[in-house]
Design the sequence.
């Protein structure tokens, strides 16, 4: 359990630190750093070149990897203008939708209602308080990241069954091929600056390498539904990291909204555990 909580803290701190790079590199350049360095680390650990690959492997791994890269790009774009914890809560609608879609229990619609109630408190509504309203584009990017997370789960389950652990480094390679050109286009030569290279490596370590290693350890020592329920704490951890690292302050309604989405996520994870189903894990590779 401590390993999983450590994973959530590392991911939250790493993403909060990544946001501090936006003025120099933009969300695009920062995402490119994270994906590229994480891909190199995973390649060094898993050495996928030892396996024989065929042309037919390109499509499933490409879909998985492209979805992963685009998901990270949209999520980083969202936290440019909306608080970190709020962005995670909105993004969580992706795995929630997958879990409910696969459910056969009428009681699971309770969790859907809670998630909708939470989102209703977050969405920018006409006539609302302009001072506390969320940026519409930031909300759109977070929702799009959630859609990508849902697709990532679907594609990820397929390649995991087919390729096992080798799916992750190859998927990250595909993600890097998509995100790197976008990052270079937006950040330009700033990505070659040594200080930003070191910062990008730190982002990859904190946001990808360390969380991935701790999550793998946790999955081998915790029941799947317990893992998923604890993973639902991510929006709260993100909100705390945003407050401590970025001085982001949430309103009472935004805090309540995050709590409702977390409760919905925990409820679907508990329900899935009752049915012996596996709830999808963290998509922020």
Sequence:
């Amino acid at each position: 359990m401590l390993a999983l909580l450590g994973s959530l803290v590392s991911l939250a701190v790493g993403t909060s630190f990544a946001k501090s790079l936006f003025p120099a590199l933009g969300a695009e350049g920062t995402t490119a750093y994270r994906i590229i360095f994480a891909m190199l680390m995973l390649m060094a650990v898993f050495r996928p070149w030892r396996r024989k690959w065929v042309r037919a492997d390109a499509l499933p791994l490409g879909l998985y990897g492209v979805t992963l890269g685009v998901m990270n790009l949209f999520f980083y774009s969202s936290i440019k203008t909306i608080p970190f914890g709020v962005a995670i809560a909105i993004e969580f609608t992706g795995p929630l939708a997958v879990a409910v879609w696969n459910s056969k229990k009428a009681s699971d619609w309770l969790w859907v209602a809670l998630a909708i109630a939470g989102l209703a408190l977050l969405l920018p509504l006409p006539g609302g308080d302009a001072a506390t309203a969320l940026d519409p584009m930031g909300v759109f990017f977070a929702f799009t990241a959630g859609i990508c997370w849902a697709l990532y789960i679907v594609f990820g389950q397929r390649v995991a069954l087919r390729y096992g652990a080798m799916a992750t480094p190859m998927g990250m390679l595909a993600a890097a091929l998509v995100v790197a050109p976008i990052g270079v286009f937006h950040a330009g030569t700033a990505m070659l600056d040594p200080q930003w290279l070191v910062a990008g490596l730190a982002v990859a370590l904190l946001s990808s390498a360390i969380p991935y290693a701790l999550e793998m350890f946790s999955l081998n020592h915790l029941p799947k539904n317990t893992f998923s329920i604890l993973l639902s704490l991510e929006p709260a951890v993100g909100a705390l990291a945003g407050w401590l690292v970025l001085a982001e302050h949430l309103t009472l309604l935004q805090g309540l909204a995050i709590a409702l989405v977390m409760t919905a996520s925990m409820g679907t994870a508990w329900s899935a555990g009752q049915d012996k189903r596996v709830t999808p894990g963290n998509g922020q590779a």
Observations:
- The radius of gyration is 18 Å.
